[in-house]
Amino acid sequence: MILIGERINAGFKDIANAIRMKDPAPVKRWAIAQTEAGAAYLDVNIGAASRDPQDMAWLVRTIQNTVSTRLSIDSTNVEVIEAGLDAIDERGVLINSTTADAGKLDQLIPLAVKHNAMLLGLAMDDRGSPQDVDRRVENGATVFMAAVEAGIPPDRIILDPILMPIKFMQEQVPHVLETIEQFTHLSDPSPHISVGVSNVGTKAAEKGRIIRTFLVMAMAKGLDTVICNVCDDELIAAVATAELMLNREIYTDSYIRAFLMRQAV
Amino acid sequence: MTIDIPNVRTSWPHEINAITLGATPAEGGTRTSTVTVGGGTTLPFCQFEGSIPNRPVVAIEVWDIPPQTWPDTVYNPFADVADDPAAWAKKAVEAFGADMICLRLKGCDPTHGNRSPEQAATTARQVADAVGVPLIIWGCGNDEKDNALFPVVSEALSGENCLLGTITEDNYQSLTTVAAAYGHKLIAESPVDINIAKQVNILALDAGFPEEQLVIFPSSGALGYGLEYVYSIMERLRIAGLKGDRAVAMPILCDIGTDVWSTREANAPVSGWGDAKIRGPLWEASTAQAYLLAGADMLVMRHPDAVRLTQKTIARLMGGNTR
Questions:
Q1: What is the pTM of this model?
Q2: Using CB atoms and an 8 Å cut-off, which of residues 219-258 of chain A contact chain B?
Q3: Theoretical Cys-Cys bridge with A230: which of A5, A185, A238, B264, CB 3.0 to 4.6 Å?
Q4: What digits encode the pLDDT tens for the residues B274-298?
Q5: Partner-chain contact B199 A249, CB within 8 Å
Q6: How high is the ipTM of this complex?
Q7: Architecture of the CATH domain A2-229
Q8: How close B301 comes to chain A (CA, Å)?
């Protein structure tokens, strides 16, 4: 399972303040905590706190001075992504994200090729968020085909079926599960499949349980990547247990410890 | 008409740990040679798709007491040295080409002579002084006694970078501490059980012992006596290690001689089964060679003919000179 740590995001107040004040401390703290918790990538998002691409570059440099973990450059703004990519050193990087929108694909695919980056594609287009399985699969396939045609191999492509809060869009959750399964049939080997799993619990009273349960169900459908709170021990334990159930990890009594060792590779 | 041969090459994301045994004077020991095993990036002998930087090695077994339970076929080559472990080790290296010596402290077993830790240490030192190859020191199998003798033996061999064994799920704390203190490496043993194989490694790691200094001993079964169970466990361990499961990405050791020479097929003078003097070594060599294909990196063996056949096979599978 590829774990992407969600915490360095200006949607969180401490990170928004850190960007505003150029205070590296909270950024470094979360870079270390998420790396120690097993994150393979750290998501980096300046959100609504800033529109200045140089703020993304500052975050990237601050993290790079602290840990060697790979980064996920997260923005809806191509200029912000480009600033992040330009600031990055030799480590692995992930572009988060493109959509199936031709304008986006035309800009981000060449950037992924140029920086040898993995590319995460959201299953949405200029018509907005999809409301059914077919639209999701169609958008995912559009991103996948465009990336493959540009020479990006399937195992460097991550598709995201767009997970919505169960509290507000309950009927969409089974659509996401079904889409995950359909994405696995796109190619052999299949592209990676990811969700921002915290979305499913937004505003819900039983947020933790909802997120954990969804994640385990999604893994059974073929999800192999997740953007999540990697510091949530119960969530990570659920992932480790699901890996056992899928026979991807050899059982031992200390399987959670073994899972964390593997993540640290 | 031409038929395309499908490209079946696989690449694996991770590699098996490499482990070096023995230490030369420059490294703080007195060995004249060292041995490195592991480090492969693919399944055994699949050099067409990955790297197998180190060939498997053969250790010849030496006991600290005359091995009265050994059948004549395997006892006879060592009959002149069976009461002198140092001479036995020297013969194993110089006459029979052992890559390593495995000293088994059988005589320390309370039911086999109950030799003292100090006697064991003296023997171990004498063996170390008689040969230049790296050493495996194998306890008597009685946990309480092994925990008493390893501190003394380890100290006597301090700096020699030996491989000590074995730790098990139920007995690992004492030996991990001792091995770490005197710079030795460890054999992690499990009873033909892949889950326990992984668990013992994790217990050792949790006790602070480095993963790069462990060798897996998944138990061995002789040909006809459960070999296929161990074989499939070794395959699964190796595949999981290459996929990135660091808790099992260790070199694997097989204790061939112990299992083979207790089988009826290797020993019994049954008419129609052929000459036991030939059959026994072939049984040992066949068992060893099956385990090589499953991923064995170190083989502990007894009969010189079996050792020679196995080393020849290793050379051929590594793509080298077949002699």
A1: 0.88
A2: 249-254, 257-258
A3: A5
A4: 999 999 999 999 999 999 999 999 9
A5: no
A6: 0.80
A7: Alpha-Beta Barrel (3.20)
A8: 30
